[in-house]
Automatic annotation (TrEMBL):
The lineage of its organism: Bacteria, Pseudomonadati, Pseudomonadota, Betaproteobacteria, Burkholderiales. This is Acyl-CoA dehydrogenase domain protein. Keywords: FAD, Flavoprotein. Residues 10-165 form the Adaptive response protein AidB N-terminal domain. Residues 180-278 form the Acyl-CoA oxidase/dehydrogenase middle domain. Belongs to the acyl-CoA dehydrogenase family. One of its GO terms (molecular function) is acyl-CoA dehydrogenase activity. Residues 288-438 form the Acyl-CoA dehydrogenase/oxidase C-terminal domain. Pfam families: Acyl-CoA_dh_1, Acyl-CoA_dh_M, AidB_N.
Amino acid sequence: MAWTTHEVFNQFDELTDFNLLTTDAALGEALQRAGAQGAVPALTAYGERLGCADTWHLAEQANRHTPVLHSFDARGRRADAVEFHPSWHALMALYRAQGLIAHPFQSNDAGRWTAWAAGFYLHGQVEQGTLCPATMTTASIPVLQKEPALWAQLQTPLFSSDYDARDVPLAQKRSIWLGMGMTEKQGGSDVRANTTLATPLGAGGRGGEYLLRGHKWFFSAPMCDAHLVVARTAEGGHACFFVPRWCPDGSKNAVHVQRLKDKVGNRSNSSSEVEFEDAWGILMGEEGRGIPTIIEMAATTRLNCVIGSAAMLRQATVQALAYARRREAFGKRLAEQPLMRTVLADLALESEAALVLAMRLAEAFERDNSPAQRAWKRVMTPAAKFWICKRAVELTGEAMEVLGGNGYVDSSVVARLFREAPVNSIWEGSGNVMCLDVL
Ligand SMILES: Cc1cc2nc3c(=O)[nH]c(=O)nc-3n(C[C@H](O)[C@H](O)[C@H](O)COP(=O)(O)OP(=O)(O)OC[C@H]3O[C@@H](n4cnc5c(N)ncnc54)[C@H](O)[C@@H]3O)c2cc1C
């Protein structure tokens, strides 16, 4: 458009309308290495869908129009409902339809973990907030599989690729999402400091009913159909409870959302503070075994942090390269300036290294029956989370700088990645905690 005072030139839009998979040779090679060729057609279609301008727009909208909490309905009844922009639902539906929630648990195909990781990596380049409930849902599956009665009830809606956002009891849902509640005000890293108290309704024990009283200081995605919650019992120490949003008698469970967090990034996702006012739950595993259950889930959620941060690095690099190849300064394209070339080369190197490590880690989850792979996975999960998540904080900033002032404008893709990056370092075990975990 010609303005009256000047002509706009040497300005370039962010890169959209490209296939995220076919333009990523390293990702294609990772899929081949893992024997996941069978997944390539579906992932290619997903890469095309995610890369189109419409999907980038959805991501921008979902992070601009953040979730809103409605504590009560218009007549004063407790609602604890979170309202999302339609773009959030569209992105959640996209991920769900791809079958990515349960893929590694639904098939025995070679490369299933890598195929799943590739889908997560593609989605994470465009929108990360939706990956929070997705991660928690996926990570809850191996834990729920150990509880036969619950699993019989939940397998079908967990495996479903049909997005169902309705806030209705579990039995009526076509598909469900799960969250996790560990962190309390007095401590998140040290889950043993949890004070939320679970009291048995009858004899208690595995599969028994309990009432939970206490709080969680961080409780993401409170609209999930259930959360796995750590609480202590009077006798047995810490335990893990399945706490649905609705009780079996059709009443809303007493999980009261106090407020939503006002966050630096991860804005599309709702993270809440909750109080349990005798919330109904079912004991999973044995009393006193809550921490090992959480650690089992954390292995998967930490893998997701690694893949998610590698995804941020990739997209930050792609956007930086695309911009530098078009933008000119001092008579040359930025990408032709010697110093800028070294910046871009460093970004590309770290991005590809992060991808290779993330995919190698995903493969280790598949080869879990080998003691050597298990040991490698045990050490490399926290090590990779420490390194890649921290590097994403630094390098999304570097990529932002490649775009100069345009990168710092709130609606830019690199700005969103920059705001998002630190959270992967913090949640699911912060940096120091990862170091201690390796030791
Ligand atoms: C957006 C967002 C969403 C979240 N969603 C959820 C959720 O859904 N469910 C949930 O349960 N939690 C959630 N969390 C909480 C998150 O998991 C915790 O913030 C995290 O585990 C750290 O706990 P903390 O905040 O209590 O920090 P602290 O435990 O107080 O730790 C503070 C710092 O001290 C360091 N530290 C701790 N112990 C040691 C030690 N022994 N030696 C050296 N350093 C140490 C940590 O690495 C950290 O850097 C969320 C957090 C965020 C930011």
